[in-house]
Amino acid sequence: MTTEKMTVHKALAELKVLDDRILAAIGACNLITTKKNNQDKVRGKTVAEFTADAKSAYDKATDLIKRRNAIKDAVNVSNANTTVKIGDQEYTVVQAIDKKNHGMDFFKSLRDTMVEQLAKAKTDLERNNDSLQQKAEQFVTGLMGNKDAKTNGDEFDASVRTYIKSNSMELIDPVGLEKRIEELDSMITAFMTEIDAALSVSNALTTIEITY
Are residues 108 and 71 in the same domain? Predict the structure, then answer.
């Protein structure tokens, strides 16, 4: 049984290379073979040498797997119980990592959708309203005729105003997108700015114990 203490920072660094080491150790395993009774060696080795090498390769692979699993388990337990403060809010490390890797993506997607919809609505509004005067005059002139439009100026102007009023667009913005976008953008920026530093400090200061 092996017991060892290390920081979470060291544990995470080791986990990054352990998977490759495990795969390499498994790939190097020659655990069983065949031999004719009249042969003294197998694969260029005596039976005793082959046996010793096979046992050593097996032990190396299983030890690495056990070490990897022990470190991973200890990190998971630590992350579930260690808290970090980001802004005015405290999170467990598990919560902070999940929010960084997944939760913030949803907020970003919502923000980007709001930005896109707000821009489209404003463009549609401006395009429609900017051309209303001309459209209104053309419409009323078509109804009254050029001669009547020129001689009945008051009626023409009143009809133009009525047309513009009826066909003007307005924004229907129940949630107040500009404010919501600003709030979300500030929250996302603040969180993403602080999360990496908070996790780095926590990982450097937090010690775990592994047993395998």
Answer: no
